[in-house]
Write a structure and sequence with these properties.
Layout (H helix, E strand, L loop, with lengths): L2 E2 L5 E2 L2 H15 L15 H5 L11 E18 L2 E8 L2 E8 H11 L8 E10 L5 E4 L2 E6 L9 E5 L2 E5 L5 H6 L1 H7 L1 H23 L3 E2 L5 E2 L11 E4 L4 E5 L4 H9 L4 E9 L11 E10 L3 H23 L5 E2 L15 E3 H9 L9 H10 L10 H12 L8 E4 L11 E2 L2 E5 L1 E6 L2 E8 L4 H16 L10 H8 L5 E7 H9 L17
Helix pairs in contact: 5-6, 6-8, 10-11, 12-13
C-alpha cells in the first residue's frame, strides 16, 4: 500500500514504484499510457469460436481480430512472449513474436504488467496444444495499471480448471469490489445473474399489465413498515425529511388514483444494525393490484419466483466446469408452496395454548429465554415478532407461506374474514430468511386511522421503529380505495437464497461498511 510521508510526498513500495517507472518509460518513448478508445472487433469468447477444431497436431488458422482486455497471464521467452487477455466473455491467448511485430513494438512489452489493459490485433490460429491464440501484429497500451491486482493461480486438474484465489478476505473484497470483480470471473457472473433476475421480475409483471412507477425517496413522513428511519434536513424548505423505509403508502395512493396495477423496484433505507441478512440500504420490489386479495397475491408470488429462479439458473449455469468457485445450481421453486398458520406455529413451538393470551411480561421472559437481546426496550408487537423469528422463522427451510398474522403485528392489513383478531397477511420464508411479505391491504380509512394512532402511541412511548399518523394517506383513502392485494419482496435476500450466498454484503455490489 502507499502512504504519505510527514512531508506529504507519496512513498510507494517497490512493486508500485516499478510500475511508475514503466509508466515513465512509456511516456519517454512517446507512447500514451491511457488511451481514448480502441476499435474492438470481437470479444474473447467470440474470437475463440471462430477457429474450428483441428485434428491432433494439426495447425489451423482463423481470421484477423481486434481484442481488448486485461492481461491476466504473462510468459516471456526471449524473442517470443505468450499472454492471456481477459474480457467480460472470457479469455484468449496472445502470441507476440519479435520478428512478427518488430523490434520497436516488441521492446515495449518490457513495460507491460499483469493487470494492464491492452488492445491487440492479429490473425487467429490454433496451437499444436489446441489453444486458440491471437498472433499479434499490433499491440496498444490502453490503461497502465499502477497498482497490482490480487490475481490468484489457475491449474487444470482432471480436465477441470481450478482457481485459487489470492483475494479471499470477504471484508476487503466488499470494500474493493472493483478489484474483486477484476480478478474473480465468478463474481462478475454472480452480479450478471442478479441483473438477469431483476429483468425477469420486470418482464413477468409487465406481461400481466403492471405499470412500473417511481415514488419519493425523500419523504416528509416515513411509513409502510416498522423501522427507524434515516433523517436529513432540507435547507430551502427548512424542514426535516426521511429516507423512505418502504414504498407502500405512495404506491397505494396510486391505486386510489386509478393506476390499478403498479410496482416499483428501488432502494429503501432503514437505520438499523448490519449483519448477515441486513444492510441499511437495500433493494425492494413492491407491487399492488386493485381488486385482489392475499390469496391471489400468493399465486402471483409463486409464478414470479419461478421466473426469477429460472433467470438466475440460466446465468449461473454458464460455468459448470469450474471448481474453487461458487457455481451451484439455484433452487427450483415448485408451487404450490406449503402454508403454515402463524398463531398455531408459534404457540406450538412455545408449548402454550395461545401465545396471544400471554401478557407483555410473560412475552418478555420468553424472549429473554430464547436469547433475544435488550427485551426490556421492546414493545409487545416487537416481542412477538422476535419470538416468531427465534422459534419458527429460523427453522423454515423450504419455501413456505406463513399466513394470518395477529392484528397488532400488521397495521396495514385487513382483518381476516371470520376472525378479526387476525389479518389477511402472509410472509414467505425459506432457509430461515424472509423473502416476501404481503397483505389484503386495509382500505377502510376509519380503521386505518385507529391503527395509525396506535402506532403513534407506541412511538410516543419510546418505540423508535413505530410510525405516526399520515394524514395525507388517510385523505387519499377517504376518496375510496378499491380492495387491493400488495406484496413486498426483498431483492437482496431473494438473490441470496437463489445463489446460496451466505452474507448480504456478497449480494450487493457496494454494501454499507465502516470507513477504513
Amino acid at each position: 500500500m502507499s502512504e504519505k510521508t510527514p512531508g506529504g510526498e507519496i512513498d510507494l513500495n517497490f512493486v508500485m514504484q516499478a510500475r511508475r517507472d514503466k509508466l515513465d518509460a512509456l511516456l519517454e518513448r512517446g507512447v500514451a499510457p491511457f488511451a481514448y478508445g480502441f476499435d474492438r472487433s470481437h470479444f474473447a469468447a467470440a474470437a475463440v469460436a471462430l477457429v474450428p477444431p483441428a485434428a491432433e497436431g494439426e495447425h489451423t488458422e482463423g481470421p484477423t481480430v481486434r481484442v481488448a482486455g486485461r492481461i491476466v497471464a504473462w510468459r516471456a521467452h526471449g524473442k517470443t512472449t505468450f499472454a492471456h487477455l481477459a474480457d467480460p466473455s472470457g479469455r484468449v491467448q496472445l502470441y507476440f513474436k519479435k520478428d512478427q511485430i518488430g523490434e520497436s513494438q516488441y521492446s515495449l512489452l518490457d513495460c507491460f504488467d499483469l493487470g494492464d489493459v491492452i488492445g491487440v490485433s492479429g490473425p487467429l490460429f490454433r496451437t499444436r496444444t489446441g489453444e486458440v491464440t491471437v498472433r499479434a501484429e499490433e499491440v496498444r497500451m490502453l490503461a497502465k495499471a499502477l497498482r497490482p491486482l490480487p490475481f490468484g493461480k489457475e491449474e487444470v486438474v482432471d480436465g477441470v480448471t481450478v482457481r485459487h484465489s489470492a483475494f479471499s478476505d470477504g471484508e476487503l473484497r466488499s470494500r474493493q469490489r472493483y478489484a474483486d470483480l477484476a480478478v474473480h470471473p465468478e463474481v462478475r457472473r454472480l452480479f450478471r445473474a442478479r441483473s438477469a433476475m431483476i429483468t425477469a421480475i420486470r418482464g413477468f409483471l409487465n406481461e400481466i399489465d403492471y405499470l412500473e412507477v417511481e415514488t419519493p425517496v425523500l419523504q416528509p413522513l416515513y411509513g409502510g413498515a416498522t423501522a427507524r428511519p434515516f433523517t436529513t434536513h432540507h435547507s430551502a424548505l427548512d424542514m426535516p425529511l426521511y429516507l423512505r423505509i418502504a414504498d407502500e403508502l405512495y404506491l397505494k395512493r396510486l391505486i386510489v388514483g386509478g393506476l390499478e396495477r403498479v410496482y416499483e423496484i428501488g432502494h429503501d433505507f432503514r437505520n438499523e444494525g448490519i449483519d448477515r441478512t441486513h444492510n441499511p440500504e437495500f433493494t425492494m420490489l413492491e407491487f399492488y393490484e386493485a381488486y385482489a386479495d392475499y390469496e391471489l397475491m400468493m399465486e402471483r408470488v409463486e409464478k414470479l419466483l419461478v421466473c426469477a429462479s429460472d433467470a438466475v439458473a440460466r446465468v449461473m449455469g454458464e460455468e459448470r466446469g469450474v471448481r474453487g468457485v461458487e457455481a451451484g445450481t439455484p433452487p427450483h421453486f415448485m408451487p404450490p408452496f406449503p402454508r403454515l398458520d402463524w398463531l398455531t406455529a408459534l404457540s406450538g413451538a412455545m408449548g402454550v395454548p395461545n401465545v396471544m393470551e400471554l401478557d407483555t411480561a410473560a412475552l418478555a421472559t420468553a424472549a429473554e429465554t430464547a436469547g433475544v437481546p435488550k427485551v426490556e426496550s421492546l414493545s409487545r408487537p416487537k416481542l412477538l415478532d422476535e419470538l416468531f423469528q427465534a422459534h419458527v422463522e429460523s427453522k423454515i427451510d423450504t419455501p413456505t407461506f406463513v399466513v394470518d398474522y395477529p392484528l397488532e403485528l400488521s397495521p396495514l392489513a385487513k382483518p381476516k374474514r371470520g376472525n378479526p383478531a387476525l389479518t389477511e397477511r402472509f410472509e414467505l420464508f425459506a432457509s430461515g430468511k424472509e423473502l416476501a411479505n404481503a397483505f389484503s391491504e386495509l382500505n377502510d380509512p376509519l380503521d386505518q386511522r385507529r391503527r395509525f394512532e396506535a402506532q403513534a402511541r407506541l412511538k410516543a412511548a419510546g418505540d423508535d421503529e413505530a410510525s405516526g399518523v399520515d394524514e395525507d394517506y388517510l385523505r387519499a383513502m377517504e376518496y375510496g380505495m378499491p380492495p387491493t392485494g400488495g406484496v413486498g419482496i426483498g431483492i437482496d435476500r431473494l438473490f441470496m437464497y437463489l445463489t446460496g450466498t451466505s452474507h448480504i454484503r456478497d449480494a450487493i455490489l457496494f454494501p454499507t461498511m465502516r470507513p477504513e
